[in-house]
Amino acid sequence: MLKRKIAALSAAAVMVLNTMPVSAYYYDVDVSNPDSVIDVRVNKPYFNFIVKAGEGVNMDDMKFALKNSSGDVVARFGGGDSRLEVLDEHAFDFSSYHSVSDAKWFPSSYDRYDDVYDLFTPDPIKGVEPTGQMYNAVGGGVINGDKYYLQFKDEYYYYYADKNKFNIVDQVTVPANTILVDTDAKYATNNDKTTYFWLEPISSADLVSDHPQSNELRMCNVAGKTVKFRAQPGTYHVRVNGGRAGGYTCQAYDHETTYLKVKIPFTEAFPDFCNSDLTIDQEAFGKTYHYDLRGDQSVNTFSALYYSGAAISAPIPDADGNIQLWVSEDELTAYMEYDYTFRDDSSIGGGGGSVRQVQLPRSVEKINNIFEFPQKGYCIYNIQPSTYQLVLDDPILARDYVIKSNTVKVTDTKKIQQKSFTVDVKPLLLGDCNRDGAINIIDVSIVAAQVKGIKKLDGRGPLTADVDENGKINITDVSSIAAHVKNSKKIPRKYV
């Protein structure tokens, strides 16, 4: 079995073309005229809230705290225009970002993928290699396997192989445990006696062909035929003329798979790969070797195989420059593995091959990042879903004022969640000097200490201690509260 390059007539005369790096080949994508626009929310939960002063309330000296359902303080801020202090290490203050232009200047301390970026998993047939990719028009954006980390401030596009744009001329279903090889009939007439391939199991899987040459095929011997290999499920290297590029393989599956035969101009499938007339001029050691991809191959031979899943194609460009190759319907991608064989008066050699990904007809979708920026108030980005309470972060103020409807439930949604809180004066019971809702001996002691100058009443306490409402707090008020406690004379129930 032939498994090496054709030996040179003279060892000293053997020449090998420079080998190209083994890699998939991706092309710049034109996003100037996208086929469609899709709306995507890529931000994390964020909570925008406003705190307003009710009638008679001055919030300038007030302090507030936002607590989660566990009672932990996640943020603090003062009245007036004070800055929000976010205490949750995963969240941050988003209050000053009112537009995309504002968001483009995040402080470096916030440049964390789990905070500023959002995990986005695109359609696997569109936005993930090898079928397609996502493009960030402003640069950046983090890619991790089949997932992307996106910023709402960036501009993203999908570009992907689109079956709706394929010129499909045939379809085939490959049975389970099978690899199919389809060879162009023109191999019988183009004088190519060189091109051959074999499949190399990466594991110890058995591989049996329905052709007498087992797992090796010389293209001229099977021109115009379809050969099937019985193969255990697994991964196989495709080796053309003995060489192979590591990492690029075909598959044998334990289930049947469907393939589309796509007709496409060679120059569209592989832009900038050859001249416009489908010729290639390769230089090596001061000589130029000329290859005609659709012409006579008796002197200089261009050998190529195209594979996708469990289907392998060996097409030759037709008179119009088109090739026909099988493409897996599950992934909509295919690869070309190619090689050169060259001859001159003194030597026969080869090499210089590699792998190129077939550039199939594509569509481009612009991602329209939907994001509603807060226009006023405070905003916490990447806040954890919970039930939150806004409280006055001062026990004295908490006795004198009340925040109406101070509870809010923040859910795991990407839409902005908003709430308006209002701080109002709390109605205080006349005579309840410590504002605990009851008049008792403690209040007698408190107002007595005020009168004696031992300890001044705090907050709005003086309003409750002036029982006779004459504008002064004296021994008369102490006596009135004491009489109320002894039930000898009740203070009229009144709120101030």
Helix fraction by DSSP (H/I, runs of at least 4): under 10%
Q: How many structural units, i.e. domains?
A: 3
Q: What does the largest sheet look like?
A: 8 strands, mixed
Mean pLDDT across residues: 84
Question: Cα-atom Rg, whole angstroms?
Answer: 39 Å
Which percent band covers the strand fraction?
Answer: 35-45%
Low-confidence stretches: 1-27
**Gross morphology:** rod-shaped
Please count the beta strands (DSSP E, at least 2 residues each). Answer: 34
Task: Count helical runs.
Answer: 7
N→C terminal distance: 105 Å
For this structure, the quaternary state is single chain
Please give a quick description of this structure.
By secondary structure, the chain is mostly beta strands. Helices cover 9% and strands 37% of the residues.
What does this structure look like?
- The protein is mainly beta.
- The chain folds into three domains: 11-21 and 165-359, no CATH class; 31-162 and 361-426, no CATH class; 427-496, Type 1 dockerin domain, CATH 1.10.1330.10.
- Helix 5 packs antiparallel against helix 7.
- The protein is rod-shaped and about 125 Å long.
- The termini are far apart.
Fold topology:
Elements: E1 36-40, E2 46-53, E3 63-67, E4 73-78, E5 85-86, E6 92-93, H1 100-103, H2 113-116, E7 118-120, E8 132-136, E9 142-144, E10 147-150, E11 156-161, E12 168-174, E13 178-183, E14 196-201, E15 207-209, E16 216-218, E17 226-231, E18 234-240, E19 249-252, E20 257-265, H3 266-269, E21 279-284, E22 287-292, E23 301-308, E24 311-314, E25 322-328, E26 335-343, E27 348-351, E28 355-357, E29 362-369, E30 378-381, E31 386-392, H4 395-400, E32 401-404, E33 407-410, E34 416-425, H5 441-452, H6 461-465, H7 475-485
Parallel strand pairs: 1-29, 2-34, 13-24
Antiparallel strand pairs: 2-30, 3-4, 3-31, 4-5, 6-30, 7-10, 8-11, 9-10, 11-29, 12-20, 13-17, 14-16, 14-18, 15-17, 18-19, 20-25, 21-22, 23-24, 23-26, 26-27, 26-28, 31-33, 32-34
